[in-house]
Amino acid sequence: SHHWSGRMALQVQDARQQSFSAGFELQGQLESGTLLVFNPLGSIMARLQWTRAGATLQQGDQITQSDSLPELITRMTGSEIPVTALFDWLQGKNTAVTGWQTDLSRINDGRLRADRISPPPEASLRIVLDQDAR
Predict the structure, then answer these.
(1) Which of 3, 82, 121, 133 lies at a C-alpha separation of 20 to 30 Å from 90?
(2) How many CB atoms lie within 10 A of CB 6?
(3) At a CB cut-off of 8 Å and minimum separation 6, what does 83 contact?
(4) Cβ neighbourhood burial of 1 (10 Å; 0-12, 13-18, 19+)
(5) Greatest Cα-to-Cα distance within the chain, rounded to the nearest angstrom
(6) Cis omega before residue 121 (within 30°)?
(7) CA distance 57 to 126
(8) pTM of the predicted protein model
């Protein structure tokens, strides 16, 4: 089972110019895993857990369940993230996703960048992994 931790930043170029930035800890794989998201003080803002049977998002007292992991990620971050490919990207595999461009040239330094060109709105995802977590 894989384990990553670091910081992620997601910016969406829509009318609200949303941006989501947080520390994270990701473990597991596509079939089952856990994603913890931390606020700047290190408290858990969100806990996302999934298995083949479905996914659960816990934000404070609010718990949302869904058959769709991508749907809960969108709810948590405000944008769609290709989670299937993300696991590959983190391992340095440049899996293609329609509408996305990835830059894995610095993955050995723990840096990953992915940009959604289409469909609109455009979005950019940046991940910086903790050096000791690699």
Answers:
(1) 121
(2) 19
(3) 30, 69, 70, 73
(4) exposed
(5) 40
(6) yes
(7) 22
(8) 0.87
Which two structure tokens, joined as six digits, stand for 117?
Answer: 């060109």
pLDDT in tens, 11-59: 988 888 778 889 999 999 989 999 999 988 889 999 999 999 999 999 9
Q: How far apart are CA 126 and CA 116, in angstroms?
A: 12
- Retrieve residue 114's tokens: 């992915």
| Tokens (6 digits) for 111 | 């840096």
Q: Which helix (H) or strand (E) holds 76?
A: helix 69-77
Q: Which two tokens stand for residue 87?
A: 């696991």
- List the structure tokens of 133: 């977590």
Rg of the chain over Cα atoms, rounded to whole angstroms, equals: 14
